[in-house]
Amino acid sequence: MEIEVIGLEPPCRGCTQLLNNVKEALALSKIDATVVKQWALSREVRDKYGLLLNPALVIDGMVVSQGKVFPVEKLVSLLGG
Q: Where are the domains of the chain?
């Protein structure tokens, strides 16, 4: 599983919080995943995923959310833990 947290540089507070929540959710659910953070919201990344808001959460190439910081419990549910 690959999880991308995409946001602006320097990372906004929401971007950092989402990244931390993802890491905590993975630890709680004992899911092995690669976490990629992208703080440079380039045109290429925006076009690839059709992003309009940040932070964005992408799981295995599918955009799960934009402009939201999911709590750890919601992330555990999304990740199948």
A: 2-79
Amino acid residing at 57: L
User: Is the pTM here over 0.85, yes or no?
Assistant: yes
Give the position of tokens 């919080």: 17
Alpha-helical (H) ranges within the chain are 13-29, 43-49, 72-79
pLDDT tens for each residue of 27-63: 999 999 999 999 877 888 888 999 989 899 999 999 9
CA distance 74 to 80: 10
CATH architecture of 2-79: 3-Layer(aba) Sandwich (3.40)
Q: Kindly report whether the peptide bond that precedes residue 11 is cis, defined as omega within 30 degrees of 0.
A: no
